[in-house]
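Bug #77: duplicate submission created two jobs. Keeping one. Sequence:
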Amino acid sequence: MSTNSLFQTYNRADLSFETGEGVWLVGSDGRRYLDMGAGIAVTSLGHAHPHLVAALQDAAAKVWHTSNLYRIPEQERLAARLSEATFADRVFFANSGAEANEAAIKTARRYQYVNGAPERTRIVTVEGAFHGRTLGTLAAGGTPKYLEGFGEPLAGFDQVPFGDVEALSRVVGPQTAAIMVEPVQGEAGVRTLDRQALADMRRVADDNGALLIFDEVQTGVGRLGTLFAYQAVGVVPDVLTSAKGLGGGFPIGACLATERAAAGMTPGTHGTTFGGNRLAAAVGNAVLDVVLGDGFLEEVRRKGAFLMQALGAVVDTHPDVYASVRGEGLMVGVVCTMPVAKVVTAAREAGLLVIPAGDNVARLLPPLVASEDELREAADRLDAAARELEATQADAAVA
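Kept job's structure:
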């Protein structure tokens, strides 16, 4: 029996971190690790970013929390900045991506209700999606292994195959409230829906009176080299969700919507105790200070292209370990030939932190502030991991 009093819901590595700077972490084993996971795309500006640290320290010396029973100036400023930088007119703040997605689902259903169609409650999603761990967002994702053991999935969700517009057209109908999609499926292995598929979703939604929701919990806040992915693909949703990188490590989520889509969300229809409190909003504003700074997003795009090229060379050199590389911006997946668990372990032994995903993929989600030299070092360490795996395989073959 474990002496750890935590729920045993994670297979954690026997490693912890107390200090870090930029893309580097110092482990409990005394080693320095190159962090290309960023806490699963969360520490968007790296560790101990001086602007974020100063913003949080300043906020912590003032009022921490008052609840949403009162005005929160920092929250109002963050909402205004998100609105000015996007299609959105309204923003609801929560604490996580799952909560932001729950707000999006409720917003879509409420939109139909106030427009005289209370029967329109169904949300159409895409196979392979991951929208969160609440019962509602698990049902939206529809992945059997995540649903097992929790009873009947919540009703109201329909799934279509990845990129299949004909199936989408057949499923969307008079009971559909919205289509909900990740422009890039992160948990499924960095699978990118092409521009045409997303444009088709926009068209089908419009033709059927449904809303279009983009789940940008992982793709948002600069990850693809634009503030949000929709700006890169040129398809504008009615509702968009954000979290992860928005707080740079501090928990915050957001549901953005047009005035029309959010019109049904009136006092009492939704709420949160902690969401968008003064600490979270202060850090969120600090993140935007950096990400919206001159040239920052252009640099992310340039560095993303560099990383893809560097990883491509590694993949080509080690076909017995890696099969291909895919992704956009600083959201990259290396499809593995060997089991990804072995690759992740070997990378960690080489001082590199990467994230496993579906489709046997090792994800690299580096802090957006990573330098070209640090990205090259990540590729070099992934190369070293492959060489170690090949040597181990060769030794096993001899034995």
